[in-house]
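Section handout 9: paired folding examples.
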Amino acid sequence: MTAEHIGQGPPGIDPELIDTCVHCGFCLPTCPTYQLWGEEMDSPRGRIHLMGQHVEGTPVTPEMAGHFDACLGCMACVTACPSGVRYDRLIEQARAEVEREHRRPPSDRAFRELVFRLFPYPRRLRALRLPLRLTEGLRRRLAPLLGRIDARLGAMADLAPPITPRVRLPRLVDARGPRRARVGLLTGCVQGEFFPQVNAATARVLALEGCDVVIPPGQGCCGALSVHSGRPEEAARFARRTIETFERAGVDTVVVNAAGCGSTTKEYAELLADDPAWQVRAKGLRFTDLAEYLAELGPAAERHPLDVTVAYHDACHLAHAQGVRAQPRALLNGIPGVRLVEIAQSDICCGSAGTYNLFQPEAARQLGDRKAAQVAATGADLLVSANPGCTMQIAAALRRGGARPIPVAHTAQVLDASLRGLPVSALTAAR
């Protein structure tokens, strides 16, 4: 099987991709789990060695599955690798092998089934909004107790964000001033239901910069959670639906404001490689990150000053998967009064990694606490993140740390406040 056949092709791990690894060890300092435990088999190099054993005939054992499960899929190793090893492809293939061959314990199977029957479905997430809002204080108090019963349940209670009022977006937001472009907006699952204010800010910013923004109703999951968890067939179904949605909307460029969704949608052509007709349709759409798109478009609207110190967090699926690092910083630096400060070890994952902080809560908690301490050390008034999972993960860790509360906002919200001349308090108010 070649690298192009990760979508629905014959099962297996591509031996040619395995052979590109020369076991040099450049990946080791960048790997979060190797930093935590110092175990070779919990490094990219070690996991590739296990993949090679499996290709040569070793079955997927519980121990082997555990090492693959412990990987965050953050792709920092891909950035660091001098040999161009496609570890991102390899770990997706390995996880698909685990799902095909490995029989998990009943409790693990049940919890995974709960996650994958809930999070990719916006309507099901929407049904949780009222219960979560009514029980917010109770959840915070019960999270440690639930964690003693099952760490995964404690993580779910701890991570759920404060529920803000729903925002109903129109199907079309007209450009303000001269029309420069027409784009679609991917609203996402967690982003759309738990952070609707981010989607609203994104639409306003694009409109203020001269874009007609098409927001198709009834959007579903893009497939990110599935493709990163060894469920490529499920991911492909979500991908087809997303492609159809924006084809019907009549746009050829789709703006994405969640890092994990952005990296997956950009790879639709690879995911659907075994179906030439769908691959062509996937290539007919351009999916682009918000900061990436705005940087290309160039500023048109006036930036009003914001007197605020901002720490920018690099989401792994934005920095490593998409190579989008400079653009968000340039957008923030382009706002008068904004003082941008860097977070130490910014390339190391915060521990969110899609569903990782639910399936591997202990490791995720350690990484989250480390990231929260590094954020607090910046002295920033505001943390800016471009991924809902990172926002929930770091916000929960900051709460646990008991230090000065630092609100978390999306890049779109900071730009929105500047373009509309809102006060800094609109961003730094406790959430």
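Moving on to protein 2 of 2.
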Amino acid sequence: MSTPATAHPTKRDQAERAMRHSWFPVARSADLETPQSAVLLGERLVVFRDGSGTARVTARRCPHRGADLSQGVVNDGSIGCPYHGWEFDGADGTCTRVPSLADQSRIPSRAAIRAYPAVERFGHVWTVLEKPVVELYDPVEWRDRDLVWLAADPLDSPTGVAAAIENFRDVAHFPFVHKVSMGPTPEVVEPLEVRRDGVDVFMERRLDASSGDWAAQGDCLMSYHCSAPGFASISYHYEQAGLRVVAGFPSPVSYEQVRIFWGVANERDFKGDSLEECLRVEEMVYLEDMPVVEHLQPREVPWDAEVPEFSVPADLFTLNYRRAFGELMNRTERLLAGEHTPARN
């Protein structure tokens, strides 16, 4: 259920509501040979591929005696409970079979589980808990590209979604956190040219391939894109090799805990390193971040100014992301008031 609206909700209240109405990944497509468990904003889910090959997301608790459906098996279009074999349709959650009943017409009419939307994109299965306030991420810069994706092993981090996205898109921490993966980088950040369009934020920078595994393909133009609440990508445009990308999608287990789903993609005719090598290099960056961000205080962006923060021009991109998240909050409030339909921008 949606978080109830209050007369004077805090920004944190609005952020939590906005996330319940936003798309997040809950599993890698490559893992769906067996049902997968997931938790999204406290909701216990099971993700599976039905007999027709369609990804499904439903509640994980069997309403008979509370067994975990992620331990069950898939039968055609249904997920079967491991305890007593009750089966539930992956599309609408209705109970389709109770093995102990001789007469299947006597299945309890209210025996059902909640089914959620499921979309496969970027090598992952995405869902949304409530009516979406914006459509699932579909970056315009990738629409005409033939990208081949490789989903990485997800990472767990004791931070909120916004704090995780800000870490991905912060450019001032490189010389202090990424000395190994990126090599020496200037401490002084050049003036940033940032553009915000609704819930999307864009920026371009040049990458100098002078040192570090980070830049093994040569000089390139980096196109940064993030979108509220939980999408962050870099598209690397190499003059000779072509296009490769990295994207992160932190998914909130709770308000202050994320599972970071992420992956890399190369254009099909990319002439540089393999997907596996690109993933190895990008994983170095993620793993260098983790020991620092896991100690952030507070664990999420202080939307209600509960602690003081001070910003400088190098924070221009992340400040615009906060404005984009604020726009998402406003759209969610309008959606709940019946004034808005989903749109990406």
